[in-house]
Amino acid sequence: MTLRLGQTAPDFEQDTANGSIRFHEWLGTSWCVLFSYPSNFMPVFATEIAAVARLASEWARRGVKVVGLSADTAEGHIEWAEDVEDTQGCVIDFPMVADCDRAVSRLYGLADSATIERGIFVIDPARVVRLVMAYPASTGCNFAEVLRAIDSLQLADAHAVATPADWVAGQDVFIAPTLTDAEAAVRFAGGWTGPRPYLRVVAQPVHDPDRQVTP
Predict the structure, then answer these.
(1) What does the pLDDT read at residue 111?
(2) What does 14-69 look like in DSSP terms, one character per residue?
(3) Residue 117, pLDDT score
(4) So what's the pLDDT on residue 215?
(5) By Cβ atoms counted within 10 A, which residue in 46, 53, 93, 197 is the most buried?
(6) How many CB atoms lie within 10 A of CB 26?
């Protein structure tokens, strides 16, 4: 994949199973998870579509919109969604882009001569790519990790902190290295702990990204 962290997520206008969307306009002030898969009616991808659908309340709580992408037609996506609902027991209520000409996939560095690669992009409200993940076709995506990463990104943006390895929401965090001790003392009046000057540990700041969005 050629799209890198910090770049602007390309805009596009394309048909979906829910009608045509212009991506940047559709995104509005929300975060976004854009995920791709090569084609419909594949076992691993069926479970991924279902997993995304079951997490609807978690995406909404974080102000995140989700959108799928493959080279199938809009009609094929509708049929696929109905099949996933029947086999996986959940309703697909987010758009799936019909990238038949692979135009969107090329914009995102996902297309080669034969298929669309599997990728996950986390995009912030400023349309900046904040996370890029890739999976092989045989391995289902871990969307719990995507949620964890979004929690970390939103917390970092709001409170100038960084999260350690295997961090989950509620655990201690680091003061961001970009803050001097003087700046940190103003923001974190209760002080910090740590065995080294660069390891400035504080309790996770209170953070509630409770914004509702409409898929």
Answers:
(1) 82
(2) E-BTT--EEHHHHHTTSEEEEEE-S-SS-HHHHHHHHHHHHTHHHHHHBTEEEEEE
(3) 87
(4) 37
(5) 53
(6) 18
DSSP string, 72-85: S-HHHHHHHHHHHH
Low-confidence ranges of the chain (pLDDT < 50): 211-215
Query: What pTM does this model have?
Result: 0.92
Given a contact cutoff of 8 angstroms between Cβ atoms, the answer to whether 179 and 173 are in contact is no
- 15 sits in the region (left: phi over 0; alpha: psi -120 to 50; else beta) called beta
Residue type present at position 9:
A
Is the torsion defined by CA of 15, 18, 22, 23 positive or negative?
negative
Classified as helix, coil or strand, 184 is helix
Question: Hey, what amino acid is at 163?
Answer: T
For residue 157, the Cα-to-chain-centroid distance in whole angstroms is 15
pLDDT at position 2, please? 75
Q: Do 134 and 121 meet the contact criterion of CB atoms below 8 Å apart?
A: no
**pLDDT the model gives residue 209:** 61
Residues contacting 102, CB < 8 A, separation 6+: 71, 111, 116
Strand order from edge to edge, sheet including 161-162: 161-162, 173-175, 201-202
Residues 153/146, Cβ–Cβ less than 8 Å: no
Please measure the distance between the N-terminal and C-terminal CA atoms of the chain and give it in whole angstroms. Answer: 26
Q: Quick one: pLDDT at residue 206?
A: 86
pLDDT at 211: 44
Task: List, in order, residues 6 or more apart from 35 with CB less than 8 Å away.
Answer: 48, 52, 66, 67, 68, 69, 118, 119, 120, 121, 141
For residues 201, 122, 107, 75, the Cα torsion angle rounded to the nearest 10 degrees is 170
